[in-house]
Amino acid sequence: MNNQKKEDNKVGLGKTLLWTSSATSVGITALLLMQISFYCTDVLQMPAALVGTIFLFSKLFDAVTDVVAGLIIDRTKTKWGKGRPYEIFMIFLWLSTWLLFSCPPHFGMAAKSIWVFFMYTFMNAVCVTFLDGNNVVYMIRAFKTKEQQAKVTAFSSFFTMAAAMIFNILFPAAMAKAGTSPANWSRLVGSLAIPLTFVGILRMLTIKEQYNNEADVSHEKLHIKDVLILAKENRHAVILLIASLLISLVTGMGVTTYYWSHIIGDLSMMGIASLGTILGVPLAFVMPMMRRKMGMKGMCVSGMIFSGVGYILMFIANDNVGLVILATVMSTVGLVPWNMMFPMFVVDLADYNESKCISRMEGTMGATFGFARKAGSALGGFILGILLQIGGFISGAQQQSGAALMTIRISAGIVPLVAIVVVGLMMQRYTLDKDLPAIHDVED
Q1: Between 336 and which of 41, 280, 282, 313 could a Cys-Cys bridge form, CB atoms 3.0 to 4.6 Å apart?
Q2: pTM score > 0.90 for this model?
Q3: By three-state DSSP, how is residue 251 classified?
Q4: Domain spans of the chain?
Q5: Cβ 141 vs Cβ 82: under 8 Å
Q6: End-to-end CA distance of the chain
Q7: Distance between CA atoms of 317 and 324, rounded to whole angstroms?
Q8: What DSSP string describes 103-145?
Q9: Under 8 Å CB-to-CB from 126, ≥6 apart: which residues?
Q10: What topology does CATH give the domain 15-210+223-440?
């Protein structure tokens, strides 16, 4: 019996790689979006405050589409399955990403603003929304046991993280070469869009939904009121929702590019700093064990403390390259447990919903958490834009004032530190590991 259980919990390398293809492709678009503020201010020469405001207002659409998409996914029943059909949005995601970075340079400021707003909104409010919302729904129907789901989440995160590291190492040099030429940026993003679109749809083409996992016991259709029920009955979901927003605010500000470009003075060296994040790769292999020993909360909070120390060092470092690299490694690696294992939070929350006799709502929660991440990223961009404007940052200028440089340092160190501390304090109220101990009582 034990041998059979171990056999049932195995996940092959080939299937893991195919499953990873979608997350890898979406992850690269997220990394590209971290450069959108820099692209708008230094390439399109748009005022920093205007750029931040555009991103913030874009979230008004996300607020509607994320809830609607989650409800649509939860009510979906097709021959292809429940979550799998929405992988088709990968094609539109990369098309809108390329168009976002291909704004015609001869446009006036109003036309540029409309172009960026529309492409950014379609990319996030539609494409990423459905790809976020379908992920857990698809996973629990493609993999039979919770141990399989935990393993594929952790191990696929290893490959996704490896792809992200390669991108972060190589892309800064490509950015430096593209300079502030709109045509060069369009060609650069276009050269990524074609192959990564193909990579992104591999999962949809090869992995079927074949298990129920008791996720479809209730056939009652979900309504918008169910989101309100979720907020009322599952306080753990509310805590994680706010935490997701704040952490995305930290990672989505996009201040790193400004730091290396204007404080260090060499944008291409940003890739060298990313080499240090390879130290976080081995965590993928111990993440399932850490989850059982420490619980989801324990391993994530421990990582956040490590990350917080990194942000302190980032502010102190100024133009000390060695210290900046160390701070980058610490702040990045510390968030690895949160980023790698977050889908398992959603699975746990769905089990908790079921224990409270309400709908599991994997799709609704996936889309809602997706909205929190995108809203946080947009809020981070807005805050950065306002801070840069207050600090006297001049778009497109090679030399910035001392106040502008201090603003960049504060944005790279102090602002993220405050957000991480708030998240850590909030997570002290997350007790789902204790409320549902059986969900973590699994064997290798």
Answers
A1: 280
A2: no
A3: helix
A4: 15-210+223-440
A5: yes
A6: 14
A7: 6
A8: --TTS-HHHHHHHHHHHHHIIIIIIIHHHHHTHHHHHHHHS-S
A9: 65, 89, 92
A10: Growth Hormone; Chain: A; (1.20.1250)
